[in-house]
Amino acid sequence: MKKILPILGTLLFLAPFQTSFAAAEKIDGIAAIVNSDAILESDIETRFRIIRDRVPNGIYSADIRRQILTSMIDEYIQSNYANRAGIRVSASDVDRAILSVATKLGTDINGFKNILNQQGIEYNRYRTQIENEILMTNVKRQVIRERIAITEQEIEDFLTSSQSLAQSKDEVRLRHLLVRSKDVNQAKAKIETIAADIQSEDDFIRLAISQSDGSAAVQGGDLGWRPINQLPALFVRELSSSKGPFYGPIQSNAGFHLLWLVDKRVSDVELQKQTKARHILIKPNAIRSDRQAQEFAVTLYKRLQKHEDFATLAKEYSEDEGSALKGGDLDWVAPGTMVPQFEAAMNETPVGQYSRPFRSNFGWHIVQVDGRRNADVSDKVKRANAEKALIAQKQDLVLSNWLDELKTQAFIDIK
Questions:
Q1: Dist. CA 42–CA 256, nearest whole Å
Q2: InterPro entries of this UniProt entry (predicted)?
């Protein structure tokens, strides 16, 4: 049976659901009340089905149930915040996300529904989960924009530090265990007891599931691959201080941390091949079928063949809001930035020419290549990358504190 591929990098994983829940009763009841919303036992079980491929050993235990419930409570609180802030997710965004998964599996929406059904997952619940994941991502982006401001001095300090762009391609895969408490001494005693019990990665996984207050606890603390220069500075210093693979305890404003270094990969510094491109995007919608969108893209392609100006046509007809007003200009595009279909067409198009219409998850494109270069070493790009790394270093703590604020304002009753 096929596995559902991740599309948002958080909880969107499906795997064959072949075993029953260990020691789980089949009585649906209320697991928790968050403000006026109820989280049911069946909601927790459905979430487990969706993330089962990420759960160590794929077993539904009391600790896994507790961690899933904690995550769902956090999501409900953030969803309420989104409603108050007027943050919404369009149906088309959800459609594109689901279509992306279906396409990667080599099927259409109906085939995808069949795969979900075989794994015991209702399509409507899966769609709601996708919508919620997109909403959470959008909410967090807004909070980060509002609460993190990077100064010019911070950028200057970063560019001259050992954590700078020289490490931008070096990545580590970490497991993370977090203990939080208003009582610092209590939290310190707890983390030291946990640390004393860790002799192997399996120990770390087991204790992360049962003891961690971190967002990745249900996955055994697995943070996945992350660029070193986007980790909190405290983590980087600790990773540099000894050989590991076990590090900590590390104290921060968020609590006490333990780390397990699963793997590390160091990329040789090499020139990056970038492409200067612009495009026209034609989307199918409620009144224009995919076939009609394709036909209109072909019409524009024929007009280009008659030497009409690409930028002028992009301004008038392109439905990519981010580039249309700039004549479809995407500026310099780095490898891996665009969806595979777009990148393939762009790479095959010679400089000074444009592609035939092609399809991606977003609609029908025509791409024009204006130039190619081996690397962008401009100060502007360096500073933008430095700002991105500094934001990544700060965002976990900022989001954690923000969530704590929301919790103090919410009514939470765990049954």
A1: 33
A2: OMP_Chaperone_SurA, PPIase_dom_sf, PPIase_PpiC, PPIase_SurA, SurA_N, Trigger_fact/SurA_dom_sf
Q: Are 364 and 302 in contact (CB under 8 A)?
A: no
Within its chain, how far is the Cα of 106 from the centroid? 22
Q: What is the pLDDT of residues 85-110, one digit of tens each?
A: 888 888 888 888 898 888 888 889 99
Number of other CB atoms surrounding residue 328 within 10 Å:
26
What is the phi/psi pair of residue 323, to 5°?
-120, -15
| Alpha-carbon distance values, 10 to 133, 172, 337 (Å) | 8, 18, 19
Instruction: Indicate the CATH number for domain 30-147.
Output: 1.10.4030.10
Q: Which residue has the tokens 């439905």?
A: 319
Fold of domain 274-373 = Chitinase A; domain 3 (3.10.50)
Structure tokens at 365: 């494109």
Tokens 């989960």 locate to 129
pLDDT digits (tens, 9 = 90+) for 367-406: 999 999 886 556 777 788 788 888 988 998 899 899 999 9
pLDDT of 8: 45
**Residue 110 in tokens:** 């109906």
pLDDT tens digits along 161-194: 755 544 556 889 999 999 998 899 999 999 999 9
| CA distances for 274 relative to 166, 170, 265, 320, 333, angstroms | 19, 20, 23, 21, 5
Domain extent listing, the chain: 30-147, 162-268, 274-373
- Is 0.70 topped by the overall pTM? no
Topology annotation, domain 162-268: Chitinase A; domain 3 (3.10.50)
Q: What is the DSSP string of 165-227?
A: GGGTT-EEEEEEEEE--SSHHHHHHHHHHHHHT--SHHHHHHHHHHH--STTGGGTTEEEEEE
